[in-house]
Amino acid sequence: MTDATPGRFSAHYEYEQTREMPLDSFAYLRDSLATDPLAIAALARPEIPEPPRAGEGGRDCRSCTADDRDYLWTDQHWRIHTIAEPLGLFFVMVNPREHYEELPDLPPARAAELGPLLQRMESALRALGDVGQVHTHKWGDGGAHLHLWQIVRPLGMLQARGVGLTVWLKALPPLPTEVWEAAGRDFARQMALGGGTAHR
Ligand SMILES: [Zn+2]
């Protein structure tokens, strides 16, 4: 990606200096921590070019070579999976069958499918029940093959609202395997009602 305006953002930070962060909006911290500012790591200087991500440019890309049976649901152009080892919150990830890396890389036909597909996914997750909110994320900092996340915030888990959700994803004990697998199966079958193939 070209850098049209070098330093447009990065020129405005102070590097290698520690600072304190106000915590009044971070409901997931212990009460004792939330009353005092938290010292956070000094901001490291920009690393340019950035190191390659897994599967960058389609080389050794596991999303490209994975079998449909590794997924919960697939159709002609899209595949949806989750991980085998449960985490504390249920989530699914969708990626195009072909190797595209960023949203602007999608050809118009794929881009036009993505909105309705995300709607179907969120509906299928909400149909699992006990869902307060479904958070859609696109990070792409780990794997290069385009993938979007949908993470379930359980009904009533108000401390996990907003950006705190991803902290709880790692901080909560893993869901039981049978609960995780049943959610994946129910999600896949709900998706298949609208087309495509459930693999669970
Ligand atoms: Zn790929």
From TrEMBL:
It comes from the Bacteria. InterPro entries: HIT-like_sf (IPR036265). This is Diadenosine tetraphosphate (Ap4A) hydrolase. It comes from Natronosporangium hydrolyticum. The lineage of its organism: Bacteria, Bacillati, Actinomycetota, Actinomycetes, Micromonosporales.
